[in-house]
Amino acid sequence: MKFLLFFLLPLILLANKPNLWLLKVYKDQNISGWVMSEKLDGIRGYWNGKKLISRGGKIIHAPKWFTKNFPPFEIDGELWTKRGDFNNISSIVRDKTPSKEWKEITYNIFEVPNAKGKLFERLKKVKPYESKIIRIIPQIPVKSKQNMKRFLKSIEKKGGEGVVVRDPNAFYIAKRTSKALKVKSFYDTECKVVGYTKGKGKFKNQMGALKCELKNGKIFKLGSGFSNKDRKNPPAIGSIVTFKYKEFTKNGMPRFPVFMRVRNVK
Q: Global pTM?
């Protein structure tokens, strides 16, 4: 029995993993007649009508007062506070014992999963539930690609992550779709810390760069984006870190990599 449970437990814990609507990457596709919105850098939360669940299928332990007036149907959005506050958001949302800091969190809705109709029809369904906690992310018509790029620059200038462009006439689909695209000047991914290089000059006696391994097995140096605190106490070997980059070279190496954060493992 113990042997059987050992193999079944991971399946049980992930039994409620939601099938989510996911974004593809913008590569100069035709977005005429589409809408755009800011891509919030928070923690994705899927409300299944009874519980708040993470993208990976784990229960998010939100306070009862937070979800008290949530709708009896599915909604999908970002648990968020403000721009540039990911580490704080992650700490609050991933804590198994909800803290008073949940008062900082808002639930920003971009989808009503499995609802009928086009985008604005689906979002209209959650309109009666808007509050200080539940907010519907504004969807702005895209006038042109240049208009979208100006919007992207304005968001990034304020410290935002990027933009999402969507076909408002598309019906809901619970998978990665070309009808919804993420737009960023830089993209982000993860790598595993496998070593360090020593700092020079003003970084003498500190970490100069992380030696990181990508999923493709390539090793590269990640040396920018660190605070003085990060350099004095760098991420541990074996930890997973997120970094942003402009693009990958033909050899599978990231161009202009910049450290963002250590992945939260809670």
A: 0.75
